[in-house]
């Protein structure tokens, strides 16, 4: 059984950062260079970077799995996600979309319906906020994630390559689910 807890303390962000290092290395080693993985984790998933994103309106959530160990309930961090209400154009005056900025689940917890639960959660938030879509970006070579998003109802609607510094590029598909 999983549940979500909003990451609001520095400790929460540090825990997410540690998990991000593990997930990114494992998941992206066939897609990105080690240098780009380290660059992206340190620049976009460090506790300082996440604190800046929180100030910009992003919300981070820990994905926790409840387990019983020796008769007591223990929560284990198995993933995280982040979102902000904004349109693909970046136009903050027309915030009728939710941008799913991050959704990462550790390998041993994938294929258990967690991503489906996250999307259902975001759909409820979108409805309350009068949003008409949820969108995300995904690396063009990340075939497993692309297929998972398609199964959740997302469709590719455009692609883009963005220079993120130090000669690194994010070469992504943009995917959206209409509500």
From TrEMBL:
InterPro entries noted in UniProt: Acyl_CoA_acyltransferase, Diverse_Substrate_AcTransf, GNAT_dom
Gene3D superfamilies found in the cross-reference section: 3.40.630.30
Domain N-acetyltransferase as annotated: residue spans: 2-179
Sections of the chain in a coiled coil: none
Entry's Gene Ontology molecular function annotations: N-acetyltransferase activity
Superkingdom field: Bacteria
Any matching Pfam family: Acetyltransf_1
PROSITE patterns, alphabetized: GNAT
Keywords: Acyltransferase, Transferase
Designated name of the protein: GNAT family N-acetyltransferase
């Amino acid at each position: 059984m999983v549940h979500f807890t909003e990451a609001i303390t520095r400790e929460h962000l540090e825990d997410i950062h540690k998990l991000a290092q593990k997930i990114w290395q494992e998941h992206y080693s066939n897609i990105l260079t080690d240098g780009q993985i380290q660059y992206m984790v340190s620049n976009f998933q460090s506790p300082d970077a996440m604190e800046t994103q929180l100030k910009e309106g992003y919300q981070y959530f820990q994905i926790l799995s409840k387990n019983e160990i020796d008769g007591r309930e223990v929560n284990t961090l198995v993933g995280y996600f982040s979102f902000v209400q904004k349109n693909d154009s970046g136009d903050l005056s027309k915030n009728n979309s939710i941008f799913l900025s991050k959704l990462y689940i550790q390998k041993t917890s994938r294929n258990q319906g967690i991503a489906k639960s996250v999307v259902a959660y975001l759909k409820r938030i979108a409805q309350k906020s009068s949003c008409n879509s949820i969108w995300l970006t995904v690396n063009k070579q990340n075939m497993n994630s692309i297929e998972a998003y398609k199964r959740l109802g997302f469709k590719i609607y455009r692609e883009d390559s963005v220079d993120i510094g130090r000669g690194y590029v994010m070469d992504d598909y943009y995917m959206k689910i209409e509500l």
